[in-house]
UniProtKB/TrEMBL annotation:
GO terms for biological process: phosphorelay signal transduction system; regulation of DNA-templated transcription. One of its GO terms (molecular function) is DNA binding. It holds the Pfam family Response_reg. The keyword tRNA processing does not apply. This is DNA-binding response regulator. It comes from [Actinomadura] parvosata subsp. kistnae. The keyword Transcription regulation applies. Signal peptide: none annotated.
Length: 201
């Protein structure tokens, strides 16, 4: 099953598997909710899952699929390769993580590998993970940085955070920059999600 919110991407992927004797595209979906419905009716062995989609995103759909259909193997196929995206997907239990610039032979091989119970990672992702193992663990966010993040999680803008903590907006931005680096993310929403997953807030 192919899950992507862009019809042209789904068309392209379907074309990659046309004529391949041992692979059949049994369903398509444009978002996570539709993917769950299609999984129930089509019962695919492998799902190629985009990460960023409206409504229920890829990781949310992966977690639901793992709970409702543990036999289905999910391979992420995305343009995003940030540490935060990779970590969330791997934590959700994916069988693979590939990037959309992968050649057709690699995609076909990945589906076969996943269907056989194996795992597959894009070479760039493998390199990132190995590089990450060699780094010193990032320092934990400070108490003040977590105070900023808690307010951000409640929907406060930088100006409101500054007013509440009696600090300048520039200081708020500095704290956020440090939090992003420590959590391995690149935006406010991802920082909140990462902090909640680690039970920091």
């Amino acid at each position: 099953m192919i899950v992507d919110d862009h019809p042209v991407v789904r068309d392209g992927l379907r074309g990659i598997f046309e004529g391949v004797p041992d692979i059949e595209v049994v369903a398509e979906a444009g978002d996570g909710h539709e993917a769950l419905a299609r999984a129930r009716s089509a019962a695919p062995d492998v799902v190629l899952m985009d990460l960023r989609m409206p409504g229920l995103d890829g990781v949310g759909a992966i977690e639901r699929l793992a709970a409702d259909h543990p036999g289905i193997r999910v391979v992420v196929l995305t343009t995003y390769d940030t540490d935060a995206d990779v970590s969330r997907a791997l934590a959700a239990g994916v069988a693979g993580y590939l990037l959309k610039d992968a050649p057709r032979e690699e995609l076909q091989a990945a589906v076969r590998t996943a269907a056989a119970g194996g795992r597959v990672l894009a070479q760039r992702i493998t390199a990132q993970l190995i590089d990450g193992l060699g780094r010193k663990p990032a320092a934990a966010p400070t108490r003040r940085e977590l105070e900023v993040l808690r307010l951000i999680a409640r929907g406060a803008a930088n100006k409101e955070v500054a007013r509440a903590l009696l600090i300048s907006e520039t200081t708020v931005k500095t704290h956020l920059k440090h939090v992003f680096a420590k959590l391995g993310v690149d935006n406010r929403a991802a920082a909140v999600v990462a902090a909640m997953e680690r039970r920091l807030i």
